Amino acid sequence: MKTTDVNRLHFKTTLHAIQVELQAGYDLSPIEAQVLARRVQQLVDEQIGLSRQSGQITYQAIAINEPPGKPLKECQKVPVHLTVVADGDAQVWADEGPQALRRRRVHRIVYEASMQGAGLSQEDVACILGISLRTVKRIFAYFRQRDKSLPSRGEIQDIGRGVSHKVPVVRKYVRDLSFSRISRELGNHGIDSMARYLRHFALVMILEDRGLTPQQMESVIGISVNLIEQYRALYAELNVPEHAWTLERLKGTISHASPSASAEHPLTLTEEGQKGGRR
User: Fold this and answer.
1) pTM for this model (two decimals)
2) SS3 28
3) Which of 46, 83, 145, 234 has its CA 20 to 30 A from that of 56?
4) For the residues 160-176, what does the mean pLDDT come to?
């Protein structure tokens, strides 16, 4: 792993999070904050282990709602419990080999972090499991090739070249699949996340109808031009009579407010509501 990767990981440690808080909130010098942070961490570590299960570690990951491009040292951290060793791991190793075990562990900790409100980067995964970044990239590619992309921080925030769940979720929804079924097909993907994808897609449709450019849409919605282009292409694909009613309903969920205001409020699509309102 490169020195720059090690430095980036340092900014995600519990110790650094405490140090930043002490410096900002109590006007301490970096040295004073570091010394006090170490003592605070000792006290925290004595207590935090009580909430972990056997085989788990606690890791400071970046909060799932932190935007791309924000310096890591300024990002909110979330302590997540990750299962490094679980029942069944040994059997997978014996029956399928170490490669299958690595895939199982990577899949597990990435989804565990996601369900606890955090996004692990590929460098996080490599550090936690003690494997090379190249190996992690191969594992992510393995799942991506099988349309089971893992919700890493890069894919959640549309950073880099990773293929996310966003477009598949929208496509499956418009083709009349329920949230619960989509969630199962995509590895128990979170309903809140799926609602956010649909809200952004609806905004892209509305702004596309109004003739805005992708760059203008970016400033209104707050998502990347790359994702906007994907949603525009998906809109062109799905904008056929068969799906007209569903697309209009999606637009209608946010048409009561201005586009800029709509981008800040969740799409109102509960499991019951989206079932009952569909034809």
Assistant:
1) 0.46
2) coil
3) 145
4) 69
